[in-house]
């Protein structure tokens, strides 16, 4: 079957997926239409296919984490970044305070504590928040191949209910992992999460990682091959939080989810994948998105460890 026909069939099969709830701890996110559904695939040769509500915009949320981690690695090198955040799966929820016993480093950059620490490294370690966020926005825009913008309504909504992330920032400060004022640290992180994308943007961004750092549509090298490898390896072990182990055994695709209902995955050397469906399971991963990824993995034989 040609890819577009296959994606149409896949969408129809998964459109009736029941269960899950739209995130409401960020009030603005609860206003989304829960029936929105889309899938996009970008091959490393630059061909993009998408079906469903593929022009619907949503905030990138935790799917920003692998890309800001990539920016930090490009800017500072692995050695410096490892001093700030480790690469071990936490086995805990995305907003858990999972820190290394001895050093106080967050266990990985895919959980909030790690992402707040990594955000702080961007644009020189002492950057004012607006310049840091501009740097990230520009960096993400190169991955997407178009100029992205920030949804300030969503950012402000999250900032009104941000006690949990603020407490993480305070803990990170107490361990000297971050130097920023806690409010600034969280604002930088929340604005990075509020960059707006659609499912095609995500697929192209994922394909850039899968393609070893070269954006497959524009041809621009954005990160080195070793940074792309590092980011995908951490996604594989920690991208789905406390569901990461089960995800890797059943789906076998490095992936990252976000509470807006997006999900992205990478097949190194082959594909970037993305889905969008707002209702989430108890671990904060899109229910229909996970179902689509499972089917894609089975139908197309995409499990990384599969040999047949
Ligand atoms: N901005 C969100 C938060 O910190 C991102 C969480 C997510 O997408 N899992 O709560």
Automatic annotation (TrEMBL):
Alphabetized UniProt keyword annotations: Acetylation, Hydrolase
An example Gene Ontology molecular-function term: glutaminase activity
E.C. number(s) listed in UniProt: 3.5.1.2
Top class in the EC scheme: hydrolase
Keyword Nuclease: no
GO process annotations (BP): glutamate biosynthetic process; L-glutamine catabolic process
Catalytic reaction equation(s): L-glutamine + H2O = L-glutamate + NH4(+)
Positions that bind substrate: 62, 112, 158, 165, 189, 241, 259
Keyword Hydrolase: yes
Family of this protein: Belongs to the glutaminase family.
UniProt subunit comment: Homotetramer.
Name of the protein described by the UniProt record: Glutaminase
Gene: glsA
From-to range in the entire protein, with total length: 3 to 310 of 428
């Amino acid at each position: 079957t040609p890819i577009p026909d296959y994606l149409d069939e896949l969408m129809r099969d998964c459109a009736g997926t029941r269960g899950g709830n739209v995130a409401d701890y960020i009030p603005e996110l609860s206003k989304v239409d829960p029936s929105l559904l889309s899938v996009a695939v970008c091959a490393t040769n630059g061909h993009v296919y998408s079906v469903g509500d593929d022009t619907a915009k949503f905030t990138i949320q935790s799917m920003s984490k692998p890309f800001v981690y990539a920016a930090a690695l490009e800017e500072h090198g692995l050695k410096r970044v490892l001093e700030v955040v480790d690469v071990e799966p936490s086995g805990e929820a995305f907003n858990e305070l999972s820190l290394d016993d001895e050093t106080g480093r967050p266990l990985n950059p895919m959980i909030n504590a790690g992402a707040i620490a990594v955000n702080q490294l961007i644009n020189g370690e002492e950057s004012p928040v607006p310049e840091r966020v501009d740097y990230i926005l520009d960096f993400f825009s190169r991955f997407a191949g178009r100029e992205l913008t920030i949804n300030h309504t969503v950012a402000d909504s999250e900032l009104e209910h941000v006690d949990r992330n603020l407490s993480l920032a305070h803990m990170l400060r107490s361990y000297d992992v971050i130097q920023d004022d806690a409010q600034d640290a969280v604002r930088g992180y929340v604005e990075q999460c509020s960059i707006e994308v659609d499912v095609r943007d995500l697929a192209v961004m994922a394909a850039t990682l899968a393609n070893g750092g070269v954006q497959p549509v524009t041809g621009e090298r954005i990160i080195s091959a070793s940074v792309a490898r590092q980011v995908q390896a951490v996604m594989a072990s920690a991208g789905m939080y406390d569901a990461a182990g089960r995800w890797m055994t059943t789906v076998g695709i490095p992936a990252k989810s976000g509470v807006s209902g997006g999900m992205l995955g990478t097949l190194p050397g082959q594909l970037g994948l993305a889905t969008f469906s707002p209702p989430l399971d108890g671990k904060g991963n899109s229910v229909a998105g996970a179902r689509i990824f499972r089917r894609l993995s089975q139908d197309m034989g995409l499990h990384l460890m599969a040999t047949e």
